[in-house]
Amino acid sequence: MKDGYCTVCTGKCHHSKHVKENKKKVIRNSSMTIEFNNVKKEYEKAQEQSKRFSVLMDYLDQDLQEIKDQQSEAYMTIRHLSQISLKPDSAFTLQHLDFFIPKLREAGKQDWVRELEEMRRTAEAEEANKDALSYLKAGLAKLNLSLVGNEQMQTVQQIKP
Q1: What does the alpha-carbon distance between residue 84 and residue 148 come to, in Å, rounded to a whole number?
Q2: Which parts form a coiled-coil structure per UniProt (predicted)?
C-alpha cells in the first residue's frame, strides 16, 4: 500500500475497497506474430469500403442538388406562368400548389412558401376558381375510381376461365 492505494492491483484500488484474497495478480507480456498479408488484406478491404462510402455520398449529394434545382425551377416556372398568363390563378396551378408548398416547407424555403400561399389565397378567393377546383377534384376522384374498377374487372376476368 502506498498513500492508501494498492500497488499490486492493476486497478490501484483504495484500501477501503481492496479485497484481500489469497491470490496474487501477475501481469504478463505476450507477443504474437501477425502475417503481413493478412494485415494488408484487411487494410485494402477497409480502403475499398471507405471508397464505396465516399462514392455513395457523392451520388446522394448529386441527387440532393438535382432535387433542389428541380424545386427552384418549379418555383420559378410557377411565378413566371402567373405573371404572363391570362388567367394566372387557374385550378390546375392551385392543384400543383397544394403539392408543392409542403415540399418547400420541408426544404426550408419560407419566403417562397409565403409567396405561393399568398398566390393561393388570392386564387381561392375567386368564385370561379372554387368551382373549377371542385370540378377538377371530382373528375380526378372519378378517374381514380374508374381505374381501380378496371383493375378489379381485369382480375375477375383473369380468374374466370
Answers
A1: 38
A2: 109-136
121-144 average pLDDT score: 69
Give the three cell numbers for residue 125: 378567393
Q: Is the dihedral of CA 49, 50, 55, 57 positive or negative?
A: positive
3-state secondary structure the chain: CECCECCCCCCCCECCCCCCCCCCCCCCCCCCCCCHHHHHHHHHHHHHHHHHHHHHHHHHHHHHHHHHHHHHHHHHHHHHHHHHCCCCCCHHHHHHHHHHHHHHHHHCCHHHHHHHHHHHHHHHHCHHHHHHHHHHHHHHHHHHHHHHHHHHHHHHHHHCC
pTM higher than 0.90 = no
CA angle 84, 88, 93 (to 5 degrees): 120
Question: How far apart are the C-alpha atoms of 53 and 2, rounded to whole Å?
Answer: 52
Per residue in 47-66, pLDDT tens?
999 999 999 999 999 999 99
At 75-125, the pLDDT tens digits run: 888 878 777 765 555 666 677 777 788 888 888 888 888 888 887 777 776
Length of the chain counted residue by residue: 161
* Distance of alpha carbon 123 from alpha carbon 101, whole angstroms: 15
